[in-house]
Amino acid sequence: MAAAIRSAPPGAEVIVVDGGSRDGTARVAADSGARVLPAPRGRAVQLNRGARAAGGEWLLFLHADCRLPENAASEIRRLLRAPGVVGGWFPLRIASAGRLLRLGARGSNLRARCLRLPYGDQAIFARRKAFLAAGGFPDDPIMEDAGLARRLRRLGQLAPAAAAVTTNAGHWERLGPVLTAVLDYLALAAWLLRAPPRWIARVYLPLQRGPRPRRSP
Fold first, then answer.
1. SS (H, E, C) 33-68
2. Would the N or C end of the chain have less CB density within 10 A of its end CB?
3. In angstroms, rounded to a whole number, what is the distance separating the alpha carbons of residues 164 and 94?
4. What is the pLDDT of residues 40-81, one digit of tens each?
């Protein structure tokens, strides 16, 4: 969390929306210089709450375990100057030297480029006016990030940045890179086939959480 906040561009308005955590997240965020707002628990609800409270001409949504590149602000400004571009995303880099994790990141970036469906760990950004016109994140328990991308695409183009956002490997370590990728792409396929997100979440979330990796004594 603190590393994510510190990676924000100098002078940026940083808002952390807390969904009732009990692990000190809100205190860490406040101590790191973020404005902390309460909201009902739920990623889409929390993201929309933060967006409504934010000012500025553009919005960027960053997961707590991700870090922006140093030139994030200049990249966003560069991309948003292009005609017809309403938002964009950053290529994903996983903070690990493992070959399978590097392949996982490449697969995520290929999916975002080919299907024009970036996920939240790719630091989606958008013009504020476009975000509001699109209706924000759909209030779904899963795939809300792809849902926002789909809504924004109706208004204009989503452009990939040149620099990468860095995330930790936690998402990939619980089940291992291969099973995680299979589960993620099955969830995406179900969503593309218009399965209700609540059904996808009912199957995906318990499986994805899985057993946590054992630590050596």
1. CCEEEECCCCHHHHHHHHHHHCCCCEEECCCCCEEC
2. C
3. 10
4. 999 999 999 999 999 989 999 999 999 999 999 999 999 999
